Amino acid sequence: MKHERYMQLHGAACPSCALAIEKYGRKLNGVEDIQVDSFNSRMRVNFSIEDEKDQNIALEKLIELVKRIGYNAAISG
After folding, report:
1. Domains in the chain, start-ordered, CATH in brackets?
2. pTM of the full predicted structure?
Protein backbone atom coordinates (compact mmCIF):
# COMPACT_ATOMS: atom_id res chain seq x y z
CA MET A 1 0.00 0.00 0.00
CA LYS A 2 1.36 3.42 -0.93
CA HIS A 3 1.20 6.26 1.58
CA GLU A 4 1.49 9.94 0.79
CA ARG A 5 2.18 12.66 3.33
CA TYR A 6 2.83 16.37 3.07
CA MET A 7 5.34 18.35 5.07
CA GLN A 8 6.07 22.04 5.53
CA LEU A 9 9.64 23.17 4.93
CA HIS A 10 11.44 26.14 6.41
CA GLY A 11 14.67 27.54 5.00
CA ALA A 12 14.72 25.47 1.80
CA ALA A 13 13.91 28.26 -0.64
CA CYS A 14 15.92 27.39 -3.75
CA PRO A 15 16.10 24.58 -6.31
CA SER A 16 19.46 23.43 -4.94
CA CYS A 17 17.90 23.04 -1.49
CA ALA A 18 15.11 20.96 -2.99
CA LEU A 19 17.55 18.72 -4.86
CA ALA A 20 19.57 18.01 -1.72
CA ILE A 21 16.48 17.01 0.26
CA GLU A 22 15.17 14.85 -2.57
CA LYS A 23 18.53 13.15 -3.18
CA TYR A 24 19.24 12.17 0.41
CA GLY A 25 15.61 11.63 1.41
CA ARG A 26 15.10 8.98 -1.27
CA LYS A 27 17.88 6.95 0.34
CA LEU A 28 15.88 6.48 3.54
CA ASN A 29 14.39 3.06 4.11
CA GLY A 30 10.75 2.98 3.00
CA VAL A 31 10.83 6.28 1.10
CA GLU A 32 9.70 5.73 -2.45
CA ASP A 33 9.73 9.32 -3.74
CA ILE A 34 10.03 12.90 -2.53
CA GLN A 35 9.01 16.03 -4.38
CA VAL A 36 10.04 19.35 -2.89
CA ASP A 37 8.26 22.56 -3.88
CA SER A 38 10.72 25.19 -2.67
CA PHE A 39 8.50 28.04 -3.92
CA ASN A 40 5.62 27.01 -1.62
CA SER A 41 7.84 25.50 1.10
CA ARG A 42 6.15 22.09 0.85
CA MET A 43 7.30 18.55 0.39
CA ARG A 44 5.31 15.52 -0.73
CA VAL A 45 6.60 12.17 0.47
CA ASN A 46 5.51 8.82 -0.96
CA PHE A 47 6.54 5.69 0.84
CA SER A 48 5.49 2.06 1.17
CA ILE A 49 4.98 1.19 4.81
CA GLU A 50 2.03 -0.83 6.08
CA ASP A 51 2.19 -0.08 9.78
CA GLU A 52 1.24 3.42 10.95
CA LYS A 53 3.84 3.29 13.73
CA ASP A 54 6.58 2.48 11.20
CA GLN A 55 5.27 5.25 8.95
CA ASN A 56 5.64 7.77 11.78
CA ILE A 57 9.16 6.53 12.51
CA ALA A 58 10.08 7.05 8.83
CA LEU A 59 8.67 10.58 8.93
CA GLU A 60 10.70 11.40 12.05
CA LYS A 61 13.85 10.11 10.35
CA LEU A 62 13.08 12.32 7.37
CA ILE A 63 12.62 15.35 9.62
CA GLU A 64 16.01 14.61 11.24
CA LEU A 65 17.63 14.27 7.82
CA VAL A 66 16.23 17.63 6.71
CA LYS A 67 17.63 19.19 9.90
CA ARG A 68 21.08 17.66 9.27
CA ILE A 69 21.06 19.17 5.78
CA GLY A 70 20.35 22.57 7.35
CA TYR A 71 16.60 23.12 7.04
CA ASN A 72 13.48 22.45 9.11
CA ALA A 73 10.45 20.30 8.32
CA ALA A 74 7.16 19.58 10.03
CA ILE A 75 4.32 17.21 9.22
CA SER A 76 1.37 19.06 7.68
CA GLY A 77 -2.07 18.41 9.15
Report:
1. 3-75 (3.30.70.100)
2. 0.85
